[in-house]
Amino acid sequence: MRFSSKTVGLVSAAITVLIWTGFIVVARASASRGLLPLDIALTRILGASSILLPWAWWLMRSARQAGQKVGSLGGLSPLPLVPTVQVGFLGGLLYAVLAYTGFFYAPATHASVLMPGSLPLWTTLLAWLVLRENVSSARALGLGFIVLGDVLVGGASLLMAFDGGEVWKGDLLFMAAACCWAGYSVMVRRGGLDAVRATMAITAFAFVGFVPVYLVLIGVGALPTHLLLVPWTEILFQALFQGVGSVVISGITFTQMVRHYGPVRSTMITALVPGLSALGAVWFLGEPMHWNLWAGLALVTSGILFGVRQAPKPVAQAAFPAGPVEAGGKP
């Protein structure tokens, strides 16, 4: 059965928004289900690797059979070693570690504002510094809305830090994670990297650079782990959702959505994620929504929608594992 382009685009958009929304809610819920942040990062990497690494190997088979030297990391990454390490460290490893650690300190409502909201801000700043992109006054105004929204949410947690609160740690980790993904996105655009191959590369680097080191460290007792304390069904669920779902499936559906709707309309669709994930946190996790969170959410969403039409023409589109993007495939 063949589906129309409209049907494929609509279904892809729905799946992308659902997974990106679920990422924030599920990741926060996972913080109380037994696994530690690095444990969750491990399941994410293993889940994504189970699909993407064999796919990458198959993708390069013709070139290998022709005697060409392709890829790196023993044929696991379709990109050369230097770009694999660069994008893999930011987009594959550091992003996951920072994001999952943040959920152990701050609620999902904060992540809904700070992670998706900070992405356009960091991406624009890095694109201005690295790619020398001009920022129009209209787009700058949209980014100003985002900054105000972030300050309303993060500023409140910083004030609570004087009373011993630790939510501010999670807020900073969320913004740092967004900065890492923005850096990855800018690297993809600067190198003109293919979205699928870039996603394979960051997974390959995380698999080679993190998995064996982490297993050795927990084996010798240098790092704590709860992998043996939770049911195997929890580990399987995290691998399927965080790895296969958030990385592989949403990467494919996002690319299909952009092909059908274009980068600008796709960003307007994914601008639903902050609001939906915040509502999901209230509904499923019972988190409160104070006035500063509502105001921050409104400002961030408005900033994304206002600034998206001023975004430059994309050079390359990077598949994003979890979170809304700017026009041009930038997270």
Based on the model shown, name its key terms.
mainly alpha, disordered C terminus
Topology:
Blueprint: H1 5-30, H2 37-59, H3 61-65, H4 81-102, H5 108-130, H6 137-160, H7 167-191, H8 195-209, H9 211-219, H10 232-270, H11 272-285, H12 291-308
The succession of helices and strands, N to C, reads HHHHHHHHHHHH
Based on secondary structure, the structural category is: mainly alpha
| Morphology | globular
How many DSSP E strands? Answer: 0
Radius of gyration from the CA trace? 19 Å
**Mean pLDDT, nearest integer?**
85
Q: Can you put this structure into words, describing what you see?
A:
The chain is 73% helix and 0% strand. With 331 residues, it is mostly helical. Helix 6 packs antiparallel against helix 7. The chain is globular, with a radius of gyration of 19 Å. Residues 312-331 have low confidence and may be disordered.
Question: Quick gist of this model?
Answer:
It is built from twelve helices and no strands. By secondary structure, it is mainly α.
